[in-house]
Amino acid sequence: MKKINYLWVIFALTLASFFYDKKLITLISYSRVSLLDSFMAWISNPLTTILLFAIITLLLFREKRKRDWILPLWLIILSTWVSIGIIKFIVGRIRPFEALTLPLVKGASYSFSAWNASFPSMHAAGAFAMIPVINKFFPRLKWFWIILSVVMAMSRLYLGVHYLSDIIVGATIGVLISKGIITSKEKRLKK
Question: Which structural domain range is residue 74 located in?
Fold first, then answer.
């Protein structure tokens, strides 16, 4: 069986999502369940993301042999945020709740600065950037983190602050940056 080139699959999904972005986000926004509103607002909160990164840092710090990976971890986070910020500034895609005047979720934050455009999703990028790190150091937590990342990314869709294509591209960028930095660090350790 041929090995699937995942980047081509992601590219195809992204292209397809551009055609269905508006329909999907509208459907989700008008099909919300009040029981999920508070949870989605909480998991989407930037402080929740920072707390999760801090927990990963502490887990790495606990074991002496893993401490050398704290700096690359934060380099991954910083590189991801800077890359996403630059792309957001260049693309300037208006957030769905503004572009389509979607209903807002009570308790969720919708106070974005003018530079903070929709494309790509910084939350998805940050969450998915941690998957290669978790897989390398805490493989038993890999599926938990994948599920958490998907839920966090979908919360952005649920709240109407991102289109599906924003999430797919953000997640892809996060994983690629993370894998690149991990590979680079591993090569330096082998020398």
Answer: 34-190
CB 138 within 8 A of CB 59: yes
Query: 44 in a domain, yes or no?
Result: yes
Q: Which pair of tokens denotes residue 133? A: 């790190």
Amino acid at 124: A
Task: Count Cβ atoms below 10 Å from residue 113 Cβ, excluding itself.
Answer: 6
Q: What is this structure's pTM?
A: 0.86
DSSP for residue 119: S
pLDDT (tens digit per residue) in 5-54: 777 777 788 888 888 889 989 988 898 988 899 899 888 887 887 888 88
d(CA 50, CA 115): 21
Q: Can you point out the beta strands (E) in the chain?
A: none
91 part of a folded domain: yes
Does any domain span residue 155? yes
Cβ(13)–Cβ(164) under 8 Å?
no
Number of domains in the chain: 1
Report which of 178, 149, 176, 191 is spatially closest to residue 69, judged by C-alpha positions. 178
| Pairwise CA distance, residues 184 & 171, whole Å | 20
Q: What is the largest CA-CA distance in the chain?
A: 56
- For residue 86, being part of any structural domain is answered with yes
Cα separation, 187 vs 191, whole angstroms: 7
